[in-house]
Amino acid sequence: MSGRPMRRWRWITGGPAPATGLALLGVLFAIAVAGPHLARWRYDEVDFTAFGAPPSARHWFGTTQDGRDVYALTLRGMRRSLVTGLLAALGATGLAALVGMTAGYLGGRLDRLLMGAVDLLLAVPTLLIIMVAAPLLRGGSWLLLAALLAAVLWMITARAVRAVTISIGRREYVVAARIMGVSSMAIIFRHIAPNLAALLIIDTAMNVGAAVTAESGLSYLGLGAQPPDSSLGTVIAEGADAAGVYPWTFCFAAGLVVLIVLAVHLLADGLRDALDPATEWRRR
User: Fold this and answer.
1) Position 238 in a domain
2) Domain membership flag for residue 57
3) What is the CATH number of the domain that holds 245?
4) What does the pLDDT look like over 231-273, one tens digit per residue?
5) Number of structural domains in the chain
6) Which of these, 24, 53, 145, 235, is most buried using a 10 Å CB contact count?
7) Range of 189's domain?
8) pTM of the entire structure?
């Protein structure tokens, strides 16, 4: 790795904010994957000798009022929330890229049809769509919830991608490729998509935080993960009523949601500065 890619990587890893976000996100993913294997208790086990017990060597994060280990519940919930958020973000950005590039480059009736559909979806409140569709997914795979979140997060990005695609489509090398008979799909993937990489990478990072927050909120309302499974939202919901008496049942899960969103936003800010040509001169 050399030249501009190396400078950008150094900017991401060397700046205090993006480096902190990248490191924090890596630690959270590592804990979500490896943490449950270090626990003595499973998320669905009950310790009948410890109801509402505070954090201790036996239960690192304490127990709930019904005797379940908060550490095991929280880490399982974090893993579910992170994976759901990542898949939803990738799906939303991928769909936005596909629709935006197709509409922006091909134009005509297809552009009007796709953007009309986007406008229609934007006119419907997102929360209403989620609250109507989420109960239908109860008992189904958590992948369906990720798909639902992706379906409500892509529209605004699609409009941005379309606008940039129209601008790129007027450049000389794209016009020359079109005159030479290069297919539309080849032009989109060879010339337009690479120029949209920065926008799409940053959008994916931002969507992870939005999807994690949305998934936790749905689970908090009882529309996401269902018992005995757990999510950060379900752990927060179970501990919210007794937060004043048993704060450990609430604060660890709530703190992890804050840390995930903070890490994603710090990383996204670093990616924006590293990939934005307008800030290239500052890094030299």
Assistant:
1) yes
2) no
3) 1.10.3720.10
4) 888 888 888 877 778 888 888 899 999 999 998 888 887 777 6
5) 1
6) 235
7) 65-277
8) 0.83
